[in-house]
């Protein structure tokens, strides 16, 4: 349903504007999907709190044990450019932990899902992270600024770097085993990470902040201290390379 709403807009001609403080673009499609999801999900679970990129945040959610964490369109720039690599990202957090998740790419017909303790799936088929264990042998999703030597006291690793604009999709690709790891050292909004983080862990991987600490959601300021995701051994190799 969300995919049909989003694809009813033409990315390059959809009305768009820039958020304050350089927070990036938003389009009428983002807002339409947000309205749809809020109506459907909150009517279904009125006792849940709500955190979405496109809804003004409220401290009221902090009093809810269970919260929807939503990015109506993750990768809005990609959507505007007419690319196919944007996604809907939906997570449910209970007492700070993600318990159910979906990442859907309507233009690629790819639906990634996970529920706590039940595994991860792509279009209903189980998925697992890759078995690569050495960082220099890995294919890693990361933006170019993450390769700055200041982050790598033991030297910049020789892994193959690639990029996708949607953080949720990057995490899903790691869960699927198409890439071995993903990392971002910038503060990351919870709605970009929530769903993908559970999909990675349910696919057998490890997903933490950039210091190796567990991810906690529904924070008063809904950001995380970067993200590192991959198979357990590879995740440890990344942390080792970052540790001065």
UniProtKB/TrEMBL annotation:
SUPFAM superfamilies xref list: Carbohydrate phosphatase
CDD domains per UniProt: CysQ (cd01638)
One Pfam entry name: Inositol_P
InterPro entries linked: Inositol_monophosphatase-like (IPR000760), Inositol_monophosphatase_CS (IPR020550)
Keyword NAD annotated: no
The protein, known as: 3'(2'),5'-bisphosphate nucleotidase CysQ
Cofactor: Mg(2+)
Keywords of the record: Magnesium, Metal-binding
GO molecular function: inositol monophosphate 1-phosphatase activity; metal ion binding
Residues annotated as transmembrane: none
Gene3D superfamilies for the chain: 3.40.190.80, Fructose-1,6-Bisphosphatase, subunit A, domain 1
Species of origin: Sulfitobacter sabulilitoris
Aminoacyl-tRNA synthetase listed as a keyword: no
GO biological process: inositol metabolic process; phosphatidylinositol phosphate biosynthetic process; signal transduction
Residues holding Mg(2+): 53, 71, 73-74, 192
Family: Belongs to the inositol monophosphatase superfamily.
């Amino acid at each position: 349903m969300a995919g049909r709403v989003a694809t009813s807009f033409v990315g390059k001609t959809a009305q768009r504007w820039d958020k304050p403080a350089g927070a990036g673009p938003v389009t009428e499609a983002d807002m339409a999907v947000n309205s749809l999801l809020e109506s459907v999900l909150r009517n279904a679970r009125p006792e849940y709190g709500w955190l979405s990129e496109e809804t003004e945040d409220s401290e009221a959610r902090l009093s809810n044990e269970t919260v929807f964490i939503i990015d109506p369109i993750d990768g809005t720039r990609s959507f505007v450019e007419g690319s196919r690599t944007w996604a809907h990202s939906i997570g449910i957090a209970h007492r700070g932990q993600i318990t159910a998740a979906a990442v859907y790419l309507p233009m690629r017909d790819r639906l990634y899902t996970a529920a706590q303790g039940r595994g991860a799936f792509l279009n209903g088929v189980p998925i697992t992270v890759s078995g690569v264990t050495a960082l220099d042998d890995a294919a890693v999703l990361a933006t170019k600024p993450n390769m700055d030597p200041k982050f790598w006291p033991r030297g910049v690793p020789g892994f193959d770097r690639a990029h996708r604009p949607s953080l949720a999709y990057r995490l899903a690709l790691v869960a699927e085993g198409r890439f071995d790891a993903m990392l971002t050292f910038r503060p990351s909004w919870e709605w970009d990470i929530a769903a993908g983080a559970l999909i990675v862990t349910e696919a057998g991987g490890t997903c933490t902040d950039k210091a190796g600490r567990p991810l906690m959601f529904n924070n008063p300021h809904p950001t995380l201290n970067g993200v590192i995701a991959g198979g357990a051994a590879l995740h440890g190799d990344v942390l080792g390379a970052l540790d001065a």
